[in-house]
Amino acid sequence: MNKTHINIIDNLADGNGLSKEEWMCLLTSLDFEERQYLHDKAVAVAKEHYGNGVFVRALIEISSYCKNNCYYCGIRCSNTNAQRYRLSKEEILNCCGVAASFGFNTFVLQGGEDPKQTPEWIVDVVKSIRDLYPDKAITLSVGECTEEAYKAFKDAGANRFLLRHETRNDAHYSHLHPSNMSAKNRRECLFTLKKLGFQTGSGMMIGSPGQTDEHLYEDIKFLEELNPHMIGIGPFVPASNTPFEKESRGSVEKTILMLSLLRLRFPKVLLPATTALATLCQDGMERAILAGANVVMPNVSPLEQRKKYSIYDNKKSTGAESAQQLSQLEQRLNAIGYHIDYTRGDYKY
Ligand code: 5AD
Questions:
Q1: Does 164 sit in the ligand 1 pocket, CB within 6 Å?
Q2: At 135, is the secondary structure helix, strand, or coil?
Q3: Which DSSP helix (H) or strand (E) runs through 333?
Q4: How far apart are CA 190 and CA 165, in angstroms?
């Protein structure tokens, strides 16, 4: 192993900031053994803060309608081949009921930016969940909204919000999104969410079209500025009937590398093993956890709708529609020395 490389990794693990050159070195130049060294350090840090538990979140995909037209995403509004559905409040409450009976303590409501699921409607849904489940965590992931709307969600009882920044580089953002979407607005939303007291999650795809290692460096710098409670990263997976359908997929190795770098830079961050990674790699979940991830988000959306939430091709789902599937998850975690942690899994301040 190269001494300089090991020194940089040790420095990062000790909580020291790194220079741009050092970050670029970690992003581009580690060999297999050095990566293993990095992953082991990241796992040690995750265990120091969160032990051998992996938090579970019940993921409910509430709508596949979206007014946005992101070039990478299968549910972009101009994809006429996409199958659309939206869940009613009753269906969402039903999903929560099933998830609660399995022992979940976090519900994640995620959807496209569906104009029919207005802020008022979302507030009503959140209030109803909060009334029924006073102690559970409610996470929203419904895109860019006004500060007033975010505040209303918070007042209704939502605790957390996920909104990936997608890329910090403005030119790259324009390469991934049509001109009516703004990287700046997205970043402002994230700072607003933090200010309002949400546990806030951001993140980006790895290997999205046009992404360079410099861009990943800029993403890390942005994350240092935002200091989010959660960071979601997964490889880019081409989606049919999108402008990027013929682009190549992101690298699994690079995703795993990034997970470890993020764990070391943000020791207490909640870091999911994402569905995109599991889609590209059978043992993606295990590899993510063994690189420092500590969250999984089993899908509890109604089975009839699940395949319609197709943001990319062959999307996997770690389902939890039966107790049996959760015990399979438990077994997979046990096999690598972990277990499901059913508690809320709030950020440890
Ligand atoms: N491949 C991987 N991730 C994707 N996302 C959207 N489309 C794709 C894709 N084709 C990610 C985006 C979004 C999150 C919900 O899913 O980062 O924020």
A1: yes
A2: coil
A3: helix 323-335
A4: 8
Smallest CA separation from ligand 1 atom 16, residue: 311
- Cα-to-centroid distance, 143 and ligand 1 (Å): 12
Any ligand 1 atom below 6 A from CB of 55: no
Q: Is the pLDDT of residue 313 over 80?
A: yes
Pocket test of ligand 1: the residue of 60, 70, 73, 208 to mutate, having most ligand atoms within 8 Å of its CB, is 73
pLDDT value of position 317:
75
- The answer to whether the CB of 226 falls within 8 A of the CB of 202 is yes
Which amino acid is residue 270, in one-letter code? L
Buried b (16+ CB within 10 A) or exposed e, 169-189: beebbeebbeeebebeebbeb
pLDDT digits (tens, 9 = 90+) for 253-284: 999 999 999 999 999 999 999 999 999 999 99
The pTM of the full predicted model, rounded to 2 decimals, is 0.98
Q: All domains of the chain, ordered by start, with CATH? A: 53-341 (3.20.20.70)
